[in-house]
Amino acid sequence: MLDLNDYHSAIVRIATVRDDSDRGHGHLVFASVELITVSRPEPESMPLNEKGIPQIYHSKRADLNFAFRRVAMDAASAVTWYRSLGHNPTLPIPLRDGDRGRHDGTAMRTSPLVDEPTWPSLSTPLADPSLFGSADDFYPTPFIGSGAHPARVHRQLAAVTPLLERVINDTDAHSWLRRRIHFDITRHDELVGGAVLVVPDPDVRAVRTFMTRDADGQEHLVGQVLPRRDGSLRGLTLTLFEERFGAMHLFETFNVEGSLIIVRARDQLEHTGYALSHIHRGLVDQQKALPYLRAVSLGMGMIGRRVRIETQDGRRKDAATVTHDIREVTRSTNRVVGLERDIVLPRGAALRFYASSEKRRQQRVAREQDLQWFDRRDVALGYIRDRIGRASKTILIIDPYADGKDLFDFGHFVTRRDIKLRLLTSRLPFDGDEVMRAGFGRALRSFSERGVPLPEIKILRGAKNPPIHDRFLVIDSDVWLSGNSLNSIGERASVMLKLPDPSTVRERLERLFEEAEPLRLAGDRE
Question: Given its phi and psi angles, is residue 370 left (phi above 0), alpha (psi -120 to 50 degrees) or beta?
Fold first, then answer.
C-alpha cells in the first residue's frame, strides 16, 4: 500500500505525439510519475519558452509532432493525475503558478490502459546486473535513476494502436525521446502509450554486500543497509545467500539494526546475493547471486613499425586507391592483478563443473538458434521441408539462385491451403528469359493442378549484381540463414541457423520483395 506521508512532491515526465494532419489533442507516448522522498530536495518544473510551449520535435519522415515536459507536482496531486489517465486524461498542472503554461490541464488522448498490478498494489522491479546476465531484458523500469532506487512501481500498460506503431517505427524520433524519457523505445516498446508510478523506498538508500578477509585469510560475507536521511531501519530483514556450483549453500536472514552483518564463510565464497524486505512493504531490493572479481588480467602491447598498404576500392581498373597505415605490435605483456592464480582459479572438480556448465550454455544457445550442419542432401531436404510443413501463416524464400525446380521441390511441402507462399530470386541461374519462364511455368502449373493457391514469384533487379547475396527462409515470424542455395544445399558442407533477432532482417527482406519485379510468364499482359 502507498503512504503519501513519506513523500512531499513528485516529478512527472510526459511525452505526447500528434499526427501532422490531426489538429486535435496530443496522444500519450509515455509518462512517469516519480515520488520524491522527504530526504531529497523539492524538484523544479522544466521552463517553457516565451510562447508557453514545452520542448517539441517534428519528425518529417513519419509526419509526427512530439512534445515533452518535466513537471513538478505535489505527491497527492501527482498520484491523482496518474490514476486519471485511464478515464479523464489531461496534461499535468505544475505545483507553482509561475511554471504553468497555456496547455497545462487541457485534455489529451490515451489508449486503453490496464493496471499491473491491480491498484493500489505495488511491485518491486527485478533485474540481473551480472556481466553475462539478462541485464534489462525483463526489467520493467529502465529509467529509474540512482536517486529513486530502490523503488516499487505500478504500471498502466497500453494496447498498441496504429499511431503508437508509427511512433515505435519512427527511427528519427528514437534518440530525441531517449534523452528525455530515459529509455529506448525499440528495446522497451511495451512501455509506449503507457505510464509508470515510481515509489522510492522511504527509508532505504542502498544495500551493499562485499567480501572481506580476516588476518588468517578466512573470507567473510558482509551486508550493509544504508538509510536515507532521517530514514528508519526498523521492520527490515536482510537475507544473504550463496550459490556454489549450481546449488544453494548459504541462506540466512538477519534483522537490520544499522550495523554491519557479517557471515563467516567455510570456503572461498563463490556467488552471493541478497534480498531486503520490509514487514509491511514486502520486497524492497534484491540482487541475484553474482561472482566476485578477484583478479584482473591486463594485456599491454607496444607499437613498433608502421606499414603503409594501398588497396583498391573494387575490382575495376579505375577503382579508387585507398591508403592504410598499419601499426604493428612488436611487444606485448600480460599481467594478473589480484590474488595468486593458484588461489583464484577453481581446481579439480570445480574446474570441471564450470567447463561443463559453459558447454551446456553453448549447446542451449545452439538449440535456440536451430543450428544445423548439412553435409548430406537428403538430411538438408528433409529438414527444410519439415520446417515449411510447420508454417501456419506465411513462407518467403529468398535465394538469388532458385529456379522453378526449387519452387516445386520445396513449395509443395506446404500443408495449409491458406499459406501465403512467396519466392524471391534473380536472373543469375538462367540463360535467358524464356528458360526462366518455362521453368517457373511448369512449377506454377503443378500448383494449379494440385488445386492450391499459386505462389507469388518476384525477380531481384540487376541481372549481374542483384542487391542480395545470402539465402534466407522466412517462416511466419522466424528467419533462417543458409550458407548454400536450395539447389545445392547438402551437396557441400554448409551451415543453416535461425536468427536470434529476426525482426530487422525480416523487415529488410520484405522491402526487397516489394521492390523486386513481378515474374511475367508468356501471355501475361503488361
Answer: left
CB-based contact 79:38 (threshold 8 Å): no
Helices (H), 284-424: 341-344, 349-368, 377-389, 404-411
Write out the H or E segment, with its range, that includes residue 416: none
By three-state DSSP, how is residue 408 classified?
helix
The CATH architecture one would assign to domain 372-518 is: 2-Layer Sandwich (3.30)
The CATH T-level fold of domain 204-291 is Immunoglobulin-like (2.60.40)
Q: Which of 176, 147, 192, 154 is nearest to 61 (CA)?
A: 176
**How deeply is 118 buried, as exposed, middle or buried, from its count of CB atoms within 10 A (0-12, 13-18, 19+)?**
exposed
- Between CA 339 and CA 217 the distance in angstroms is 12
Dist. CA 136–CA 127, nearest whole Å:
6
Angle, alpha carbons 402-403-409 (nearest 5°): 90
Cell of 247: 546449488
Can you give the residue ranges of every domain in the chain? Answer: 4-200, 204-291, 295-338, 372-518
Residues in the chain: 526
pTM: 0.77
Beta carbons of 452 and 413 less than 8 angstroms apart: no
* Nine-digit cell string for 358: 559453459
Please, which contacts does 52-60 make with residues 24 or more away whose CB atoms are closer than 8 Å? 52/101, 52/102, 52/103, 53/101, 53/103, 54/101, 54/103, 55/180, 57/173, 57/176, 59/170, 59/172, 59/173, 60/172
488-501 tens-digit pLDDT:
999 999 999 999 98
Give the relative orientation of helices 433-450 and 404-411 as an angle to the nearest 10 degrees: 20
Tell me the pLDDT tens digit for each residue of 222-251. Answer: 999 999 988 899 999 999 999 988 888 899
The tens digit of pLDDT for each residue in 437-482 reads 788 899 999 999 999 999 999 999 876 788 899 999 999 999 999 9
Please classify residue 383 by burial: count the beta carbons closer than 10 Å to its beta carbon, then call 0-12 exposed, 13-18 middle and 19+ buried.
middle
- To the nearest 10°, the Cα dihedral for 157, 160, 163, 166? 110
Residue 29: which of 59, 50, 73, 74 has the closest Cα?
59
Backbone angles phi, psi at 77, to 5 degrees: -65, -35
